[in-house]
Amino acid sequence: MTQFMNIDFPFHFDHRHRTAATDNDDHIRDMIEQFLFTNPGERVNRPDFGAGLLQLVFAPNSPELAAALQFTIQAGLQRWLGDLIEVRKLEVTSEDATLQVELVYLVRLTQEEQTAQFTRAA
Length: 122
Hints:
The chain is an alpha+beta fold. Helix content is about 25%, strand content about 25%. Helix 1 packs across helix 2.
């Protein structure tokens, strides 16, 4: 059986001066974070990957923007990580120059529900 190494994000070295690894649950959380804060067009081989939330930190706050973001994020997570997770609850809030995403998802492999919160401030 092949064992895969989950590289920790952001990339760094561990106490043994080797590439830092992480467990499967943290790796999935890292992939969600990468999707949320990657701008579309930023990845050469996947130009439509990413939700581009960093671009929206200074956008005018409105219920319409929050609803659009929730729809876009849910669709993107389904497309890019749908084989790993099932989104159970997603809430996006923007206050002043802070953007917050609260996500509840099911890890398909273990059938365990996880909760993650992502916050970015300008």
